[in-house]
Structure formats: C-alpha cells, structure tokens
Amino acid sequence: MTSYPIVSALLLAVPALFIYHRVTAQRTSATPSPTTEKPEEKPKSIMQPAATDLAPPKDDPFTQEQLKEFDGSDVSKPIYVAIKGTVFDVTRKRDTYGKGGSYNLFAGKDASKALGKSSLKEEDASPDYSDLPNTERKVLDDWHAFFVKRYNIVGKVTDLPAVVANL
Ligand code: HEM
C-alpha cells in the first residue's frame, strides 16, 4: 500500500540521523592530527551552528543540589547543563532540554559520564567520568567544546566528586 514508502523512509531516517549525529559530535576525535584542522573539511551539520552573541563567562558557584532547581521543570526558571563542572545556560533550547525534551536527562546536573559514553541512560547521568577510557574522555571534551561555542557559561559546580575535581 501507499504507506510502505513512508514507513521505509522513517526506518532509514532514524539510524541515518544517529550515525550523522555521532560523526558530527566525534568529528575531532576521528581526526586527531592537528594538521587536519582545515575549515574546508568540516561536514555540513544537523547541529546548531556556533553562537555569535555569547556573554562573557561567569564564575558563580553551584552545588549539585542547587543545580537541580534548573532542570527545566519550572518554566519560569532557566535551564542549566553542567559538563566537567562548567555550568551552561541552555534555556534557549527548552524544547530539547526542558521537561519531556530528548535531552532533559542532562538538565539540572553534571552528567559528564553520559555525554562521554554517548548514553541517554539515567544511571550514566553522573559527574564521575573517571572510569571512562581515553576515547570516551575525548568525546566528552568534544561535547564541552561544543557547548562552550553555543551556550553562555554561568558558573562552576563546586562539589564535584574528588576523583574528577582534579582531573
Ligand atoms: C537515535 C539516536 C539519536 C538521534 C536521532 C539524535 C539526533 C540529534 C539531533 C537531530 C540533534 C540536533 C538537535 C538540535 O539542534 O535541536 C542532536 C543533538 C544532540 N544530541 Fe543527539 N541524537 C541521538 C542520540 C544521542 C545520544 C545517545 C546522546 C548522548 C550523549 C546525544 C546527545 C546529543 C546532544 C548533547 C546534542 C546537542 C543538543 C544541543 O544543540 O544543545 N544524542 N541529536
């Protein structure tokens, strides 16, 4: 029937998006040589472009408990995502990080481990990424760099687990 082409297209689109997303997110880790960093090699991305209107970074202290207030459940408050202790204001992507959003898992906390592992599991949403192998630490660093270019930095997490505080 006529619905088959639509179903087939959908079945193909989801994995294709995922692969493209992963390739884009890990672009720098796939090409470790500094000599390969040429602008013309950048593939077109489904990800949002870097922001041009970022404010100077702030250094306000946040405990993990205080961060929870900014998990998107209260629409009158901003949404914060922390990566390796850096707190980013992702409020302008409330659809993505707010309640019911695909990446709400990352909101109101430091979920560095999940970003490094490319995981959306609640159990991986932890600031302790110390058991990740170097390949996944590089993915995490790439995500940190991605956020630095796109979101305002509003502070630092002050009570990270000791095992990562000095990494
Ligand atoms: C089937 C699996 C997946 C698909 C189809 C997918 C698709 C996408 C798409 C389309 C975007 C761009 C969204 C936008 O700009 O609004 C995106 C961004 C993103 N994805 Fe995924 N993704 C998948 C899996 C994952 C996983 C496993 C992670 C875990 C780390 C992840 C983390 C992210 C993050 C952090 C962003 C950046 C959002 C932003 O712009 O702030 N994704 N993904």
UniProtKB/TrEMBL annotation:
Homology family: Belongs to the cytochrome b5 family. MAPR subfamily.
Parts forming coiled coils: none
Protein name per Swiss-Prot or TrEMBL: Cytochrome b5 heme-binding domain-containing protein
PANTHER family reported in the protein's UniProt record: BINDING PROTEIN, PUTATIVE (AFU_ORTHOLOGUE AFUA_4G06240)-RELATED (PTHR10281:SF115), MEMBRANE-ASSOCIATED PROGESTERONE RECEPTOR COMPONENT-RELATED (PTHR10281)
Pfam families attached to this UniProt entry: Cyt-b5 (PF00173)
Alphabetized InterPro entries for the sequence: Cyt_B5-like_heme/steroid-bd (IPR001199), Cyt_B5-like_heme/steroid_sf (IPR036400), MAPR/NEUFC/NENF-like (IPR050577)
Statement: the UniProt record of this protein carries the keyword Protein biosynthesis: no
GO molecular function list: heme binding
Origin: domain of life: Eukaryota
Cellular component GO terms, alphabetical: endoplasmic reticulum; membrane
Signal peptide: 1-25
UniProt keyword annotations, A-Z: Signal
